[in-house]
Write a structure and sequence with these properties.
The complex is a heterodimer of chains A (297) and B (218). Chain A is an alpha+beta fold and 297 residues long. Chain A contains 9 helices and 4 strands; from the N terminus they run H-H-E-H-E-H-E-H-E-H-H-H-H. Helices cover 66% and strands 9% of the residues of chain A.
Chain lengths: 297, 218
């Protein structure tokens, strides 16, 4: 291809866009909405994943103490726990506190506790283990070690619900792929039809160009630029809208989903680039498909 | 320049041309004539490569149209100008842009395009109407624009399908004069027409078709 034709192709492509303004506005708007749905999903997924991994890296343990433990043994135990690598005592819960917590948690149903002859709940020490070298400490050996200490009745940790969350994330990830795939197909369909409409509107011109000796590529390139432009513009607008939405929610402390206490971050640059490139790529592929069957003159 | 060997063309069950063999030499001016439905347009479209023969061969300047690839055909079309009965002009473009299109698709430089387009329009007497749009022109003027577009890249062959079919006798004379001028510059010209008046006034070679057969040459 001769380089001096590049301005001609670009001029031609933008002339197409101008002349089929309405078709392009509808096409780009629909693409933006589809990309925005996907982007929102990605944003929520990314944040959820980050939070879960954050929690997953921190190990929380509840160490339940034996009934009637003397204060000397308890002090020793506390010191031993503090000496464990990465351990930090989050809270010391006395028997009374545990009872009160349960009362509060049961609310109206707390009457069930009234018939009890004595407080059956053990005192406990809530311990948080910070990640060591970026990884969550292995809970098994810690639990084993703690349970051997004098004054410890039982040790429980947050493994089970973490596993459940990770299972849930797998489902969410799969749903993401399905939603992404379906939306991509939808976007491809939109671009293909938008370009088809502009081809129809210029069919006479294409015919005449072919009759005066235009090669297929000479006719096709402006349409490919047009499709890519549609993809690029849709990608940019949807990312801008996604960021605006994110900034608005972040400023409002992101009360949605009751996650206000957590950091709400925007998707990282590789994700942004992926959305943009996928959008531009779908524009190009869509116009390729649309052009496929128009060159039999 | 143009050679046809035992060429047949069918459109489904309908036979458009049968067993046509003929030869047009370089620099000839030939009328393809015959009644409506004789196969004149089909013959021109086959020579232009817009249709493929059902059987037989067509050679343009030694190139067999049956054996060339699509892209080569596009390049060959730059050397074969075609003037259509319905002009085939783009109404949304000025006449300058319509004529320049034939050079733009060939990837010529803008300065060359400007110069050649201006020359072509001057040669058909429309230099002063460069910025007009086709629908602002008369039928005869529109046909001249179509001729300017067909000759702007100095084709070896000029094909014209009923170029005066929509024109009155005075304009017909003008257009024919234009074709003769182009022919005198060395271009091989093939004009399809069923106009008896036109043929009576000419001493040029004639190929006569009837019901898809070559029935005579004059």
């Amino acid at each position: 291809m001769r380089l001096r034709l590049v301005p001609y192709f670009i001029r031609q492509a933008f002339q197409n866009v101008r002349e089929n303004r309405l078709v392009h506005i509808v096409g780009i708007s629909t693409m933006v909405i589809s990309l925005l749905i996907f982007g929102t999903f990605l944003l929520l997924f990314y944040n959820l994943d980050t939070w879960i991994h954050g929690w997953g890296n921190t190990l929380s343990m509840s160490i339940y103490l034996e009934e009637g433990i003397d204060s000397g043994t308890e002090k020793k135990l506390v010191q031993l726990i503090r000496d464990l690598p990465g351990a930090k005592i989050d809270e010391m819960v006395s028997k009374k506190q545990a009872y009160n917590n349960l009362l509060r948690a049961l609310g109206k149903d707390s009457v069930v506790l009234q018939g009890l002859p004595r407080n059956p709940l053990p005192a406990s020490i809530e311990v948080v283990f910070k990640p060591l070298n970026g990884e969550r400490p292995d809970p098994g050996p810690i639990k084993e070690k703690l349970e051997k200490l004098r004054g410890v009745e039982e040790v429980q940790y947050s493994e089970e619900w973490l596993n459940r969350f990770e299972g849930l994330m797998k489902v969410v990830r799969l749903a993401g792929f399905i939603i992404g795939g379906l939306l991509s197909l939808g976007v491809l369909f939109i671009v293909t039809n938008t370009i088809k409409l502009t081809i129809y509107s210029r069919q006479e011109e294409i015919e005449i160009m072919k009759l005066v000796g235009a090669t297929d590529w000479f006719v096709k390139i402006p349409f490919l630029i047009e499709g890519s432009f549609q993809g690029v513009l849709s990608g940019l607008v949807s990312l801008l809208a996604l960021y605006s939405g994110y900034a608005f929610l972040a400023a409002k402390k992101a009360d949605i989903l009751g996650l206000a206490i957590l950091d709400f971050v925007f998707v990282p640059l590789p994700y942004v680039l992926t959305i943009f490139l996928v959008s531009a790529g779908l524009g190009l592929v869509g116009s390729f498909i649309a052009l496929g069957r128009f060159f039999n003159l | 320049m143009i050679q046809l060997f035992h060429m047949f063309k069918n459109f489904g069950p309908n036979v458009a041309l049968q067993d046509i063999s003929l030869r047009v030499r370089k620099g000839d001016f030939v009328f393809v004539t015959g009644p409506s439905g004789a196969g004149k347009t089909t013959l021109l479209r086959l020579v232009f490569g817009a249709e493929k023969p059902t059987s037989g061969n067509i050679l343009i300047n030694g190139i067999n149209l049956n054996r060339i690839r699509r892209q080569q055909l596009d390049l060959l079309r730059r050397k074969v100008g075609f003037v259509f009965q319905d002009f085939k002009l783009l109404t949304g473009r000025t006449i300058f842009e319509n004529v320049a299109l034939a050079l733009e698709v060939a990837g010529e430089r803008p300065s060359y395009i400007r110069k050649k387009t201006h020359l072509a329009l001057r040669s058909v007497g429309l230099a002063k109407k460069e910025l007009s749009y086709p629908l602002q022109l008369s039928g005869g003027e529109q046909q001249r624009v179509a001729i300017a577009r067909a000759i702007v890249n100095d084709p070896l062959v000029l094909l014209a399908d009923e170029p005066t079919g929509n024109l009155d006798p005075a304009l017909t004379k003008d257009i024919m004069l234009l074709f003769r001028t182009i022919h005198m510059k060395g271009t091989t010209v093939l004009v399809a027409t069923h106009s008896r008046e036109l043929l009576e006034e000419t001493a040029q070679k004639q190929i006569i078709l009837n019901h898809g057969r070559l029935v005579g040459e004059k």
